[in-house]
Automatic annotation (TrEMBL):
The gene is prsA. Keywords: ATP-binding, Cytoplasm, Kinase, Magnesium, Metal-binding, Nucleotide biosynthesis, Nucleotide-binding, Transferase. It comes from the Bacteria. SUPFAM superfamilies: PRTase-like. CDD domains: PRTases_typeI. This is Ribose-phosphate pyrophosphokinase. The active site is at residue 191. Homohexamer. It is found in: Cytoplasm.
Length: 309
């Protein structure tokens, strides 16, 4: 069996280090140099010849994080690595997964092409914005689910009359997974959006009177949709509103929006680093899940075993 080598990108050490701890291997040594104009040079400081190499890097903004991952993959390929896996807890540019208007890119497909062209043999990621993005790759994609993290947490909470809700029609399948697991009802918040990151209006489909509502979404950017949904649900008679969100992008006025909203708690994973701490945001670690996925991949064991039945 090939030797395992784990490496971290510059801005993902916060999650790569606990992943390595759970796996039981130290992170490998590398250097990322920058020339005065910002151009990057990646140097892997140990042999990877014939090894099974895992690069851990979320591709959040700025684009340097993606470029660094690509350069690291190319470095390993040219150093005769045996097998290269890109471990991408947060897969950036996933929101543009189809051509919904004239003259726009399908960015998720383009990024998939670039990662393959750089030399990756496999991708491990979690909660892609759309499931079909797995098909944009012609290499294996292990698509982990945050249910494996959120469901055990929810089981420990003592909530009375729980309902699960989708903050938009597009997220119904995601919310229904939780509703089916806990055998609870599902409600839908139907939103109208006039432009990106701005919700014009929202309608609640279903009865939420007296319920502890849990919104389910894959990411929170400005958190406008989640906050608007929470406020509308409370107006409709909900007892409390919490939200589960895998990727805490939280840009712009997100923290201000969350503090002002009627969201009691926003529960997220650490696929992205928080810019600041707040009592309203609870972070659950996905490091152990990714460590198990890396081990199962290396040992040719099932990834499906990591999903919640």
């Amino acid at each position: 069996m090939k030797e395992v080598k784990l490496f971290s990108g510059t801005n993902s050490r916060y999650i790569a280090e606990p992943i390595a701890d759970f796996y039981g291997y130290p992170l490998g040594k590398l250097i990322v140099n920058k020339f005065s104009d910002g151009e990057m040079q990646t140097i892997i400081e140990e042999s990877v010849r014939g090894a099974s190499v895992f690069f851990i890097q979320s591709t959040f903004a700025p684009a340097d994080n993606l470029l660094e991952l690509l350069l690291l993959i190319d470095s390993a390929k040219r150093a005769s690595a045996g097998y290269i896996t890109a471990v991408i807890p947060y897969f950036g540019y996933a929101r543009q997964d189809r051509k919904d208007k004239p003259r726009v890119p399908i960015s998720a497909k383009m990024i998939a092409n670039i990662i393959e062209s750089a030399g990756a043999n496999r991708v491990i990621t979690m909660d892609l914005h759309a499931d079909q993005i797995q098909g944009f790759f012609d290499i294996p994609v292990d698509h982990l689910r945050s249910e494996a993290i959120f469901i055990p947490y929810l089981k420990k909470q003592k909530l009375d009359n729980v309902l699960f809700a989708s903050p938009d029609v597009g997220g119904v399948k995601r919310a229904r997974t939780y509703a089916k697991y806990f055998e609870k009802d599902l409600v839908i918040c139907d939103k109208e959006r006039r432009r990106a990151n701005e919700v014009a209006s929202m309608t609640v489909i279903g009865n939420v009177t007296g319920a502890d509502v849990i919104l389910v979404d894959d990411m929170a950017d400005t958190a406008g949709t989640l906050c608007k949904a929470a406020d509308v649900l409370m107006e409709k008679g909900a007892k409390s509103v919490r939200a589960l969100c895998t990727h805490a992008v939280l840009s712009g006025k997100a923290y201000e929006n969350i503090e002002k909203s009627q969201l009691q708690q926003l529960i997220v994973t650490d696929t992205l680093p928080l810019k600041k701490k707040t009592d309203k945001i609870k972070v659950l670690s996905c490091a152990q899940l990714f460590a198990k996925a890396i081990r199962n991949t290396h040992e040719y064991r099932s990834i499906a075993a990591l999903f919640v039945d």
